[in-house]
Specification:
2 copies of one chain form a homodimer. With about 230 residues, the first copy, chain A, is of the alpha/beta class. Chain A is built from 6 helices and 11 strands. The N terminus of chain A is likely disordered.
C-alpha cells in the first residue's frame, strides 16, 4: 500500500476502457475470452504501457511511456483497497468454481485487500505479495464501508466491471473516474453508460476533461470537488 | 456551391454531435424542442463558433475561432448537395405538415439542393439563396445516386440524423465523418451507434483521429482511403 497524504480517502476508477458505443466488455465472457468478443482490443493501449508491462501478465513488448503511461501509472498510487465486481474476478456465472483464484496468478498485482462483490460469499483468500480477496454480498454503500475498513487510510479503487461502476455512480459514491474511449464499435456487451440506474446528468456532478493519445484512444477524466 | 477540385465526389458527415452515450438527439423531439430533452446541450460548442454565428439563426454571442471553428467551418466547402433524414427537416411524425418549410427560414444556410428522405414525397420546394428541398422515398444507395445528379460535381454532405447516418454507414457509403462527442449523458434518444444495422468493426474501414477542444468536446475524425 502507498496511501499518500490525502485529506480523506477517495473512490477512484482507473484505466477503465470502453468502446465508442460504451461497452466495457464484449459479449460471451469466458475463461478463454475475459473480454468476450472484444478480445484484447479494449486493453491494447494499456498492455503497451510500462505499468502494465511491468505486471508481467500480458506478454512482452517494448513499453510506451507517453500519455497512456502517464494515465495508466496512477492506478495504484495512494490506493489501499480495490472493490471489483464478481465478473472481473472470475468468468463463471451462477455458483462459483471454488478452485478459481483469480486471473492474476498467486502474486496478483494489487498488493492490497480486494473486495469482490458476489452473491456467493466464501472465506477470505490470502494470496502472495499482500493481496487478499474478500467476498461480500452487499450494496455499494455497504461494500464501501467494508473496504474502507481494510484500506488503512488509503483510497478505494473501484476496479469495474461496467455494471459495478454504474451502480457506484448511481449511488453517487465515485470521486474520480478515468475512462478510456477506444475507437472501436462492439455493438453488444456490458455498457458503462446504459442501464436501469439512469446516469443522465452525470456531467453536472463532475468536472470532465478529455485528452487524446497518439495511440488513438481518448482519456476522459472525471473528478468532483470535495 | 463551392465544388473544389476533388478527384471524385465524397460523402461527408460534419458537425454531428453525440452525447457520451452516443445519442444524436434526445427523446421527445418537437417544434419547441428540436433535440428533445437534450435541449441545446449537444450543439452549444457549435453555436458558439463563427461559422454558426454567421448563419444568423442561433442568437448572438462573441464567436469562437479555435479548434471548434476549424472543424465547424469545413461543413460546406466543396459540398454540392445535402442528404438529410425526414426528422432533421421537420419535427412531425406520420403525415407531414404541408405548410412546413424547414427550420431555417426562407433563405436556409445550405445554398445547394437538399434531398430529404421521407416516406411522404411532395413537390420540390424552392427556397431563396439557392437552396431547394427534394423529397425522396428511397434507399441510401438510390438517394445517393439521385443526390449526385444534383451536386454538379460537388461532394455530398450527409446531414443526419443519427438513423440516416447509421443506414449510410451500414451500406458502406460514407467517406468522411466528423463526430463531436459532448461530455453529457442523455440516457435515451436516437443513437448513432446502436441499431439493427450493426456497425461493429467500423474501425477497420476508417482511419480514426481524436482531437479534444478546450470547450470540452472531443472531435472524432473518420476517413477512408479511396
Amino acid at each position: 500500500m502507498d496511501a499518500g497524504d490525502h485529506a480523506a480517502p477517495r473512490v477512484r476508477v482507473h484505466n477503465f476502457s470502453v468502446s465508442l458505443d460504451g461497452f466495457g466488455t464484449g459479449e460471451g465472457q469466458s475463461l478463454e475470452a475475459p473480454f468476450g468478443h472484444a478480445g484484447h482490443r479494449l486493453m491494447e493501449w494499456a498492455l503497451a504501457t510500462r505499468t502494465f508491462q511491468e505486471m508481467g501478465l500480458h506478454g512482452k513488448q517494448r513499453p510506451t511511456v507517453g500519455v497512456d503511461e502517464a494515465f495508466a501509472s496512477r492506478w495504484n498510487t495512494g490506493v489501499g483497497v480495490e472493490i471489483m465486481g464478481r465478473h472481473k474476478f472470475e468468468p463463471t456465472r451462477g455458483a462459483p468454481d471454488e478452485k478459481w483464484r483469480g486471473w492474476w496468478g498467486e502474486d496478483p498485482p494489487f498488493h492490497t485487500p480486494v473486495v469482490v462483490l458476489t452473491h456467493h460469499p466464501r472465506p477470505v483468500m490470502e494470496m502472495d505479495g499482500g493481496t487478499s480477496f474478500h467476498f461480500l454480498d452487499a450494496s455499494p454503500a455497504e461494500a464501501l464501508d467494508y473496504a474502507r475498513g481494510l484500506a488503512e487510510g488509503g483510497d478505494v479503487r473501484l476496479g469495474g466491471g461496467a455494471t459495478t461502476i454504474r451502480q457506484f455512480l448511481a449511488a453517487d459514491l465515485v470521486d474520480e473516474m478515468h475512462v478510456v474511449v477506444v475507437p472501436i464499435l462492439l455493438g453488444r456487451g456490458e455498457s458503462l453508460w446504459a442501464g436501469p440506474e439512469g446516469l443522465e446528468g452525470l456531467e453536472e456532478r463532475f468536472h470532465i476533461e478529455s485528452t487524446p493519445s497518439p495511440s488513438g484512444v481518448t482519456h476522459l477524466s472525471f473528478w468532483r470537488d470535495r
